[in-house]
Design goal:
The chain contains 6 helices and no strands. The longest helix has 30 residues. The protein has about 110 residues and is mainly alpha-helical. The radius of gyration is 20 Å and the shape is flat. The relative contact order is 0.10.
């Protein structure tokens, strides 16, 4: 038991590398990114998502009863964080109407009680 515990708690370069790439998968796939093949599709996808995301973020934030800037922060920074730490290509990251309604109810209740 002591031997097994000391092996699992020891630090090595491979364990450090595996842990780092586990937290930041972008380090693993970015060197293999085919720039000339994928860049135009990624730029178009980013522009389309950005164009849709701005009014949606503002609307959902107003729905939640918050200032629109908070919706923009949550919509853009969640995507930036997911770029570095995400592990799936097929995940929807951002703000949602149900979440906005729930946050809006909590904010209204807390403002009423204050």
């Amino acid at each position: 038991l002591t031997n097994k515990l000391s092996r699992s708690l020891s630090c090595s370069v491979t364990k450090l590398k595996n842990t780092f790439t586990g937290f930041f998968p972008v380090v693993r796939w970015l060197p293999k990114y085919k720039f000339k093949e994928y860049i135009w599709g990624d730029i178009m996808s980013g522009l389309i998502v950005g164009i849709i995301l701005v009014p949606q973020a503002i609307a959902y934030c107003l729905l939640a009863g918050l200032q629109p800037i908070y919706g923009l922060y949550t919509s853009f920074f969640s995507n930036i964080i997911y770029f570095f730490m995400g592990t799936s290509r097929h995940v929807s990251v951002g703000i949602f109407s149900l979440m906005s309604l729930m946050v809006g109810q909590v904010v209204d209740r807390e403002v009423y009680l204050a």
